[in-house]
Amino acid sequence: MSAHRRSDSSASIADATGAVLTAAARKLAAVSATPQLDAEVLLSFAAGKPRSSLLAFPERALEPDVVARFAASIARRAGGEPLAYLTGEREFFSLPLGVTADVLIPRPETELLVELTLAAIEGLVRPTVLDLGTGSGAIALAVKHTRPDAQVTASDVSAAALAVASANAARLALDVRCVESQWFAAFTGQRFDAVVSNPPYVRSADVRGDLQSEPRLALDGGADGLDAYRAVLSAAGEHVAARHGALLLEHGVQQRAELAQLAVANGWRVVAAHDDLAGRARVLVLAGDAA
Q1: In total, how many domains does the chain have?
Q2: What is the DSSP code string of 10-32?
Q3: How far apart are CA 162 and CA 154, in angstroms?
């Protein structure tokens, strides 16, 4: 292409990697707390190249097809679509998980729930673990990856979500049993050393804004956000191993006191309450009265 033709077109500047990223980050500033990072991740995805490779040569021109794919993804991100749904992937507990709009995007704070589950089964030989409402399979797969001897079951009422979890298990070569179930419905007569869940706990009225991009089934916990806990706590006594079993529940920042009261009312004892790295109330560890 001649110098004259390049100078006649604004693309001569816009198609350079650095300029493209800068312009994209400006567009994302209103919807993202990390607009520059989002732009870099999306450009890396569009180009099929590592971020480091793109950032090392900011003056390098981008191919037209890359620019087109990138522009489309920036438009979707600027419209509020989560970054993980655009790239189809989110890292959790150092595992690359595939995600779709059928599942909740795994959050870093949920890694605490994995760590506490691993602590609960420490010392047990071939422990059994049930992850209720598995979504992408994040918790179940992280436990299995860390404790290969564990017999891990992932369940979800959503067939679409369970398909994502199954695909992740296959891609990561982790032998996790995936079962479609409304809470404990498919587990009659079965007990587990640890039952773990990050259930829907957002109040119905609060499922708005950015949360509307994610599946409501995975978020909406009813008028007070506690509907899923009521279902789990009322039935878990028949499925958590007696004496040493543990029930671990992630919860909302403002829900600890009310959830603890609900647990006690259903015959559970609060063993421990844990905050996440940001100091926010996050997980209750429960045991049955006979434990």
Answers
A1: 2
A2: THHHHTBHHHHHHHHHHHHTTT-
A3: 8
Gap between the Cα atoms of 92 and 88, Å rounded: 13
Surface-to-core class of residue 262, CB atoms within 10 Å of its CB (0-12 exposed, 13-18 middle, 19+ buried): middle
* Domain endpoint, select from 81, 100, 117: 81
Comparing C-alpha atoms, which of 117, 111, 145, 60 is closest to residue 271?
A: 117
Spatial CA neighbour of 42 closest among 17, 73, 20 = 73
Exposure b/e, 169-208, CB count within 10 A at least 16 = b: beebebebebeebebbeebeeeebbbbbbbbbbbbbeebe
Last residue of a domain, one of 46, 81, 116: 81
Q: What is the pLDDT of residues 64-75, one digit of tens each?
A: 999 999 999 999
Are residues 246 and 120 both part of a single domain?
A: yes
pTM score over 0.70: yes
Coil vs helix vs strand at 260: helix
| Nearest CA-CA partner of 43 in 79, 74, 13, 77 | 74
Matching residue, tokens 């007569």: 189
d(CA 235, CA 222): 18
pLDDT in tens, 155-209: 999 999 999 999 999 999 999 999 999 999 999 999 999 999 999 999 999 998 7
3-state class of 151 per DSSP? strand
* Shared-domain flag, residues 132 and 243: yes
Q: Is 286 within 8 Å of 256 (Cβ atoms)?
A: no
Q: Alpha-carbon dihedral of residues 172, 142, 210, 54, nearest 10 degrees? A: -50
Number of CB atoms found within 10 A of residue 148's CB: 10
Q: How are the residues of the chain apportioned to helix, strand and coil, as percentages rounded to the nearest 5?
A: 45, 20, 35
**Strand blocks (E) in 67-150:** 89-92, 95-98, 128-132
Residue 145, domain extent: 89-288
